[in-house]
Specification:
The complex is a heterodimer of chains A (about 950) and B (about 120).
Chain A lengths: L6 H66 L2 H13 L2 H15 L6 E8 L4 E4 L13 H6 L4 E5 L10 E9 L6 E9 L2 H8 L1 H5 L14 E5 L5 E3 L20 H9 L4 E5 L5 E9 L4 E8 H4 L1 H47 L14 H82 L3 E6 L4 E4 L1 H7 L3 H4 L9 E4 L2 E2 L6 H8 L3 E3 L5 E4 L6 E13 L2 E11 L1 H54 L4 E6 L4 E4 L1 H7 L8 H8 L5 H11 L3 E8 L2 E11 L5 E10 L1 H38 L7 H31 L7 E4 L1 H19 L2 E4 L9 E4 H17 L5 E9 L2 E8 L6 H4 L25 H11 L3 E8 L3 E9 L1 H5 L1
Parallel strand pairs in A: 25-27
Antiparallel strand pairs in A: 1-2, 1-5, 3-4, 4-5, 6-7, 6-10, 8-9, 9-10, 11-12, 11-18, 13-14, 13-16, 15-17, 16-17, 17-18, 19-20, 19-23, 21-22, 22-23, 24-26, 27-28, 28-30, 29-30
Helix pairs in contact in A: 1-9, 2-3, 9-10, 18-19, 19-23, 20-21, 21-23
Chain B lengths: L2 E5 L3 H13 L3 E5 L2 H11 L3 E5 L7 H10 L8 E5 L4 H9 L4 E4 L5 H13 L2
Parallel strand pairs in B: 1-2, 1-3, 3-4, 4-5
């Protein structure tokens, strides 16, 4: 940012700079140097003084010590102390005390008291008898005094009425032996030291060097090793007597002395925080610091005066230069300022303004050029201003007119608004009143009607609308009797006798009570209800102008009494009935109990003789009843059965507890077969025990030992398969050889009879193999050992294949063998193709076998999701009696076991077919059969669709 | 002439099949158990094998496995014979690489010769 200063200001500062700055700098340096020299001067003076005082203190201390030494060598003191310590002489004590008081105390005025101690530190004699007997054993001066002459400052130890004092001590020795007898200690006032510091002592002694010439703020004092001020003479320092024993002097020179033994000479702050110049001396032997200080304010008084003089001269100079600068600055800047102001005034449109600059230089020329420019501007703008003035005036007049018009319109509007508001307020008041009244009427629980003199309804409330079953909208303005009929008991009350009429005519209220037995009839449903009402005349002044009816449905009141009476009667009868029932029940219970006992006994007998292990539990799994066979199956038990005990026996075989829970929760029986339990085989059966309504009260568990049955079954199966297999091999050899002869060597068998015999062997062997195969098949089917490989295929194709295979047989008997609608396509079936083929071969083969004349035909027909294959023949038919034996094992219709035609097969064909078809999910059955006419067999096979489901 | 090895433990049946195939013009070798059968296959390298499944020492299915596992014999055509009607056995034999598995009691010796000719040696 550029500093925007006026020319005048700039000139002012330049002149100020040129005139003042050099003088100021020069003055400052001079004064500063002078001050520094002064400081050094004062400090050196202080140092000299401090050294002088130090020397004097040392001299005084030496004097004290020598005094102590002379006391110690006093013969009386030595001998008396000797007596006291060796003999404990009381007399010697008194004598010594006397000696000290009379002969020693007056030696020096500074002495306040004398103590004589034995080697144990016990005071044995003193100038003050109160001190005798005290122990000074731990005191510094005593310990040191035993060895040598010493001087020590005593702090805070009261002796001879002084808290602080100064002690010189010396050992007292035996004259002959040189043995230390004790210590003598002389107590001095510290005033003597103070006098030395203040210079008073020197003056008294007539010395030439006192403290003369010291300034009035000079302080000279001593600080002990605990930084305590202990000698501070009242002097010329202006502070008066200080309570110095309490004063801690923690200043720089004291610290320097105590911590490093260094003496200080510099400016610093003293104990009271005042700036001082000072010099210190360390009296290391005693831990004292001697300080000589002078307050900086006094020391620099002279230079401070110079500073003041310098400052005031500068200010004066500044003022003079300022005035001069302002004068000259103004002389240069005024015309320029006028030019600037003039251009601003012209810029505002005041073209009459002219400048007056009379400096007689270039600035005056500039002013004239400016005035010429202003003249031209004025000429140009004066025309424009005239027009503007006229136009403005016209506009002002128009606005004035509009203002007046507007004002009167506003007044009119305000008046109208007031009027409207009044009307609105009035209307609202009315509405409120009306609403309040309507509210009261509408919310009344009672029904309310208002009729005029012609008994036309004027008003009705919602309760009345409900009760009378008519809406106010329809009813208002029409006669009351049009809507409501009134009855006394069953008889209608004529209009003239109705209470509204009575009230209107009499001018008094008419009350209708429950006992009056009045009823109203609803308009729509014709519901009749008892009513209580008040009809009151509606008066306007003296005139009756209508009736108010207030009424309500009194059904409840009316029936209340009747209901109570009826209820009491009912209860009484119920109680009587119940009593009878109870008696009956008691009788039945006692009878039932007997029956129950009998029943129970029978049941227990049955359970015990049951050929099954038996358990009856409740729903919680508590075992209620078991039988003895259970122990035979599961092993003996101690202390009765529990479900967990049963579980223990069967763990790894049957999860009894889990099955129990499943049985209860799923409400169904569970059967587990062929459980190998140790060396036995068991069937397990659990069923829920229900009472009525499907409630489970427990479970029944049965264990069946099927070990024997299983062994028997297995040996039978084994017999069948082994026998069949072992039979077939030799049979195959017989048949093979017979057919070999017939196939390859028939020409060599010339004899006709022999040839027939070979034929018989062959035929028999073929049949035998068939029989064995039938047996084997049957056995495997019965055991469920055959698995069916179900697949989707077209049944019509399989039928055609079978018919082709059997065609030679049909042709031989000259029978027609056909598939009806052979070209038609049928839905695919889903069964085992090979097994189905066997079944078809058997059924169609049978049909051919038992038919001598006519035809065998096969019909296919879809039946739902299944496909029916029907085989009809014109054979001899099956008698009704024999029809039911069909599909049985070893049965051939029409034959008894002993008379049957064994040449025609085993009689197992249909039985095997049945097992196979049913195994594949189909059915086989006889549709019909008439003897001498023919039979129809059919099988249904599941289709692909049904399989998907 | 085609060399055929017939393996059958029942002596009567073996004799019957031998007679039938010799009569039909084959050079027939026989074996009554699995071990002998394997030795004769290795030593004689027959053109085809007609073998019962239920034979002692090594079963027909085991020999079939050995044949199929050995590169020298894996292409040797084999027809199995059985008396068992269980379809599982028949399927197993075929899955192991037998040309067919024939039921002994379903075919006369003549039919057997025709079948074997068709299954083992058809051009």
């Amino acid at each position: 940012m550029a500093l925007k200063l006026k020319i005048k200001t700039k000139l002012f500062f330049i002149l100020l700079g040129v005139g003042l700055l050099p003088a100021t700098i020069f003055g400052f340096f001079n004064i500063y140097n002078a001050q520094r020299e002064l400081k050094n001067e004062i400090l050196s003076k202080l140092l000299v003084l401090a050294e002088a005082k130090e020397g004097q203190i040392f001299a005084y201390l030496d004097f004290l010590e020598s005094e102590a030494g002379s006391f110690a060598s006093d013969g009386v003191i030595k001998s008396k102390l000797g007596e006291i310590t060796t003999q404990g002489s009381k007399e010697a004590v008194d004598l010594l005390n006397q000696h000290l008081i009379l002969n020693k105390l007056p030696v020096d005025k500074a002495i306040v008291g004398i103590l004589v101690m034995d080697t144990e530190g016990k005071v044995v004699a003193s100038t003050n008898s109160e001190e005798v007997g005290e122990s000074e054993a731990g005191d510094d001066y005593f310990i040191k005094g035993l060895k040598d002459v010493v001087s020590v400052d005593l702090r805070r130890e009261k002796h001879f009425g002084l808290i602080d004092s100064f002690v010189a001590a010396a050992p007292v020795t035996n004259v002959e032996s040189g043995k230390v007898l004790g210590v003598i200690a002389i107590f001095f006032r510290t005033e003597k030291l103070a006098d030395i510091l203040s210079g008073k002592f020197q003056e008294e002694k007539g010395a030439l060097t006192g403290n003369k010439g010291l300034s009035k703020t000079t302080e000279i004092y001593l600080v002990d090793k605990e930084k305590r001020m202990f000698v501070h003479p009242p002097g010329n320092h202006g502070h008066g007597e200080l309570n110095y024993p309490e004063m801690i002097v923690n200043t720089e020179p004291v610290k320097n002395c105590l911590e490093r033994g260094e003496e200080t000479i510099s400016a610093y702050r003293n104990y009271s925080g005042e700036e001082v110049l000072g010099s210190s001396m360390c009296i290391t032997e005693k831990g004292w610091t001697l300080l000589v200080e002078v307050h900086a304010s006094e020391a620099f008084a002279a230079t401070n005066r110079t500073w003041f003089l310098f400052g005031s001269t500068s200010v004066l100079f500044l003022a003079v230069v300022g005035v001069l600068a302002a004068f000259f600055g103004r002389k240069f800047s005024d015309p320029i300022k006028k030019l600037h102001e003039g251009s601003e005034i012209i810029g505002e449109g005041k073209y009459d303004y002219r400048l007056h600059i009379k400096t007689g230089d270039e600035l005056e020329q500039l002013g004239e050029a400016f005035n010429q420019m202003a003249d031209q501007l004025k000429a140009y703008t004066s025309g424009l201003a005239e027009k503007l003035k006229e136009r403005t005036k016209e506009l002002a007049e128009k606005i004035e007119g509009l203002k007046l018009a507007n004002q009167s319109a506003e007044e009119l509007k305000a008046a109208m608004l007031n009027l409207l508001e009044d009307a609105k307020a009035l209307e609202e008041d009315l509405k409120k009143e009306r609403d309040r009244a309507t509210g009261i009427i509408s919310s009344m629980g009672e029904s309310l009607l208002v009729l005029n003199r012609s008994y036309e309804i004027v008003l009705m409330n919602p309760a009345a609308e409900t009760l009378l079953e008519v809406s106010a909208k329809d009813a208002v303005g029409r006669p009351w009797s049009d809507f409501t009929r009134v009855y006394l008991a069953d008889k209608e009350i004529p209009i003239r006798e109705r209470s509204a009429v009575k009230a209107l005519e009499s001018g008094h209220a008419v009350t209708t009570r429950v006992e009056d037995d009045h009823y109203y009839e609803g308009f729509k449903t014709k519901r009749r209800f008892p009513v209580v009402a008040i009809s009151a005349p509606l008066k306007s002044g003296e005139d009756v102008i209508g009736v108010v009816k207030v009424f309500r449905d009194a059904t409840f009141e009316k029936e209340h009494l009747t209901i109570i009476e009826r209820a009491v009667a009912e209860r009484t009868r119920e109680l009587r009935d119940k009593n009878v029932v109870l008696e009956e029940a008691k009788r039945k219970v006692s009878e039932g109990w007997l029956m129950l006992q009998e029943e129970k006994a029978r049941l227990m007998a049955a359970i015990q003789s049951l050929p099954r292990g038996f358990i009856l539990t409740d729903v919680e799994g508590q075992i209620l009843i078991t039988n003895q066979l259970l122990e035979k199956i599961l092993g003996p038990v101690k202390g009765g059965w529990t479900l967990s005990e049963v579980q223990n026996r069967l763990t790894g075989y049957v999860e009894v507890q889990e099955l129990f829970r499943k049985c209860i929760s799923e409400k169904r029986s569970i059967i587990l077969k062929d459980i190998p339990f140790v060396s036995r085989i068991l069937n397990f059966f659990i069923t829920p025990v229900f009472i009525e309504a499907g409630k489970i009260i427990g479970t029944m568990i049965l264990f069946e030992d099927v070990t024997e049955a299983k062994i028997l079954e297995r040996s039978k199966d084994e017999f069948f398969s082994i026998a069949s297999h072992e039979l077939r091999t030799p049979l195959t050899a017989i048949r093979g050889n017979a057919s070999m002869i017939l196939d390859y060597f028939s020409e060599q068998v010339k004899d006709q009879e022999l040839r027939e015999m070979l034929d018989d062997i062959h035929t028999s062997s073929v049949r035998l193999i068939e029989i064995v195969n039938d047996f084997l098949n049957m056995s495997r089917l019965e055991q469920g050992k055959i698995t069916f490989h179900n697949q989707a295929f077209q049944i019509e194709e399989l039928v055609t294949e079978v018919l082709d295979e059997l065609a030679p047989q049909a042709k031989q008997k000259n029978l027609a063998l056909t598939l009806v609608d052979a070209k038609k396509k049928y839905p695919a079936v889903f069964v085992d193709r090979d097994r189905t083929k066997e079944v078809l071969l058997n059924i169609i083969g049978n049909a051919l076998k038992f038919t001598e004349k006519g035809e065998v035909k096969v019909t296919l027909a879809p039946k739902g999701n299944q496909l029916e294959v029907a085989v009809s023949d014109t054979g001899r038919g099956i008698s009704y009696k024999n029809q039911r034996l069909l599909f049985r094992k070893f049965q051939q219709a029409g034959d008894s076991l002993y008379t049957r035609d064994t040449t025609r097969g085993t009689g197992l064909g249909l039985y095997i077919s049945k097992l196979m078809v049913e195994g594949m999910g189909g059915k086989i059955y006889l549709v019909k059969s008439v003897e001498g006419v023919g039979s129809t067999f059919a099988l249904t096979l599941p289709g692909v669709e049904s399989e998907k489901k | 002439m085609k060399k055929l090895l017939i393996v059958e433990d029942d002596a009567l049946m073996l004799k019957l099949y031998e007679a039938a195939f010799v009569g039909a013009g084959y050079v027939v070798d026989t074996a009554a158990d699995g071990l002998v059968a394997w030795e004769k296959i290795v030593a004689g390298k027959p053109d085809g094998v007609l073998m019962d499944i239920m034979i002692p020492k090594l079963t027909g299915l085991e020999i079939l496995d050995k044949l199929k596992a050995d590169p020298a014999f894996k292409d040797m055509p084999v027809v199995m014979l059985t008396n068992l009607t269980a379809p599982k056995v028949v399927e197993e034999a075929q899955s192991k690489g037998a040309r067919a598995c024939l039921l002994k009691d379903r075919h006369t010796p003549k039919e057997m010769v025709d079948k074997v000719k068709e299954l083992l040696f058809a051009p």
